[in-house]
Amino acid sequence: LIQNTFGDVLRKYRKLHGFSQEKLALEANVDRTYLSELERGIRKPTINTVFALSYALGLKPSEVIREVEEEYEKIVDNLGEKV
Amino acid sequence: LIQNTFGDVLRKYRKLHGFSQEKLALEANVDRTYLSELERGIRKPTINTVFALSYALGLKPSEVIREVEEEYEKIVDNLGEKV
Hints:
Two copies of one chain form a homodimer. Helix content of chain A is 72%, strand content 0%. Chain A is built from five helices and no strands. In chain A, helix 1 packs across helix 5 and helix 2 crosses helix 4. The longest helix of chain A is centred in the C-terminal third of the chain and has 19 residues. At the A-B interface, helix 1, helix 4 and helix 5 of A face helix 1, helix 4 and helix 5 of B.
């Protein structure tokens, strides 16, 4: 769930900044296939990957995490579950 | 570097909230040895672990990450390196 939300936020900002997966992967020094898996929520990023991708997009890691957190809490609230 | 900063921030908040490693590990549903390794900067947490530990301490994940980011950027600035 958290990794799916992260993947959605990452894809949104990558497109907003006009980056291809190839370009972002190169600038953040991550594998292109790994980046694609992150965007699809298949892999869980480490904190280091979150920092590298955020900075490559010109964003603060805490801004990216805040957005993931807001989306995640909305989904959990809608499910009526406890965080 | 990032994982060391995360480990320091995590230990600080754990102690501030009066949690033992055992209690935090139990509440966040992570292994006690793994938590100890995170605090020592030996392991890199996934985003899911960051969320679980933050919520267990009653904190927002973005607050924890903002503090890691501030400490990390201070260290990088002092090294005179580019982020």
